[in-house]
Amino acid sequence: MANNLGIRNRRLPALxxxxxxxxxxxxxxxxxxxxPVTKESLVNIGPVWIxxxxxxxxxxxxxxxxxxxxxxxxxxxxxxxxxxxxxxGLRITIGDTSTLEVVPDTPYSLSPxxxxxxxxxxxxxxxxxxxxxxxxxxxxxxxxLSYYFEMNDGSSSMGFYSAFTSIPVRVIAPRTYVYxxxxxxxxxxxxxxxxxxxxxxxxxxxFIENAQAEISGAPVQCYLLTTGKMNVxxxxxxxxxxxxxxxxxxxxxxxxxxxxxxxxTPWGYTYSYSFPLNLVIKPVRETKVNLPSTVVANTYVxxxxxxxxxxxxxxxxxxxxxxxxxxxxxx
Length: 331
Hints:
This protein is mostly beta strands.
């Protein structure tokens, strides 16, 4: 009994460590657990008192878009009566670098006691544009109102006014990693074809919006291919084909090829890879075959081949002959 307890006690730290790692990973990337909060602000723009209400999440994950509702209500007007009040738009700033101007097609007309509601879409390219995969940034959101109003006595004012100056928010860029592997295959039968392959796969968290591979320096049939959206653990293979036989006299003996691959995350971070390659092409020759029209079974048949242009001194030719899909000679 004591031995069993000793074994269990020795396993306990490992079990606790495993549970801690699982909990830490779940806490890092759990956008569904971040609950939105509602903030209210009462601002005074000249003689006009305005109540602004906004609901937004406490965490912004760079794979998602967020719809943020904003409600503006004039609660009181001091002094002379209000003739018109227009909400021309909103300016939303995250940290010190990202600013979003929200301008409606026509200004919103506000009057006391009648709220105006609008929805602002926050995209990853706005709130996480300068982040790399795995970044976590604690910052603030500032919301300004763009307004114009005129009183009955003829006085007026226009400009920006800060409804919220510092709403705390955490921005998370998932650990999205892109792996790339190019390789080459060559076929000689029935045509001389060079095939470029690029394997692309995604690891970690989230997804990528698109990956593309481009071949430059070689006359492939299509030089640019894309994958579209790719999720984590997904793999795609892009294939480029260069038909040397059909190129004929346009084929050169050597090409300086570059395989370039880029992959873009939802918040705009771009992975970029470049693979240079010196591609040597074997000469393409015209082949003529001479053989008798009638042969006798189970006897040797003379067959001759002529290559134009002929082989160089350092070259060798291999001949393979099949009859009814069965190999009969190779050498």
